[in-house]
Design brief:
Its main location: membrane. It holds the Pfam family MFS_1. This is MFS transporter. Keywords: Membrane, Transmembrane, Transmembrane helix, Transport. It is a multi-pass membrane protein. By secondary structure, the chain is mainly α. The protein has one domain: Growth Hormone, Chain: A (Up-down Bundle), CATH 1.20.1250. About 80% of the residues lie in helices and about 0% in strands. The chain contains 23 helices and no strands. The protein is globular, with a radius of gyration of 21 Å. The protein starts with a helix and ends in a 12-residue tail after the last helix.
Amino acid sequence: MTIEASAHKGRINPMATLLVLTLVNAMAQSGGTLLAAVLPLIKDEFGFSDGQLGLLTGYGSVLSMALLALPIAHWAGRYGASTMLAVSMMVCGVASALTAGCGALWQLIATRLVSGVGPAAAWPLGQALVSELYPPERRAGAMATYTAGDFLGNTLPLVVGGWIAVKFGWRTAFISFAAMIVLTALLQRWLVPNPPMILPTSAPAKAAEATRWSAGLRALWHERGFVQITLGFSWASFAVSGLSKWMPSFYNREFGLAPDEAAAFFGGAYAGGALIGLLLGGLLGNRIGADRPNRMLAFCMGTYALTFPCILGVLFAPNLKFAFVAHVAATVFGAMPNGPVLAMLHTTVPRHLRVLGASVFLLVLTMLGDGGGPLLIGLFSDLLQPRFGNESLKYAMLIVKLFGLMLFVHLSLAWRSARNQRRQDLASPFTILNPKDTL
């Protein structure tokens, strides 16, 4: 770690900064979840098909996240991570407010694309700021806390936003959350300073070259563990994001819950399971990865495997109570890998590539997972509707969930790559310390 970075850490409270960044992350994720909560109301007002709604909640909402991830990482290096994050969140808040005035599908897609600048910045910049504050042996727990913002942002809009939408209209719900996003951005910029520029300390003469996208992307491509972990969790996101965006509609159609009740029901199961899963995942990740970080790969595969029978329990539940219990269990096991996997990602790449690495991770996750999952469920639901009627959505969700099996293929390759690298390091008489494991 550089002397400047150490001094920077001494001037701020890591826990306070972590909590503020977690709140920012929550607000950045709130727009997509609020859209999912009010989806039945939008469908009733405009008469959109499931395919159109899948486009809106999929690529229509997250494509800008993928396109802006790399430029935001570049601008953060010039203007400061905290400054860039605050500006992006302000734009996100304004776009969310404009959503309330939309009257056509293309308008909804346009405003959702602009608001994607918020999560596009919160994911890489927030993670990089957290990584700077915590050493590797505590990073899984810190990342689990930061990831709690994802689940808070995926719960609060369901419960609060769904209630506002039913009582006062879905447009009022978007205006309310837009105000919260703007206030959170102002709080973050006031309390979180810009960190010093992160550059490779081993080769100062090549610092400018290392910050170029082409050089950084080539370096990331040669980090085989990073590549396989990114691909594996992109497939998992394909399933998780797709099911999450459609779950309130599933409860509305399958059990006859009103839109606000369906959103609150899903939000309750999501919140309870996520908090338990994140806490357990962070604690176990710190313990398991304290001396052998690669053991966390097996931990992630094991916990994610348990989500499959739980999701089957949700989709084919005989009653609402059974579905709730199964959903809580699925969320617990699904949330447990979040902290460890982010810690692994930031450990497998050098410090000066963390922002770029997180941006690439977000880009792949968005293009393959967040965009494709909801869209494919909508398309499958339309195709299956003639045969299964009102239950077409259930079978479409089941098909997309099966795509998550690809996670095990890529994490197995990552584990093999890490094992081979460890053998090479142990065999080398000159290996003292892996520089990528340092701060």
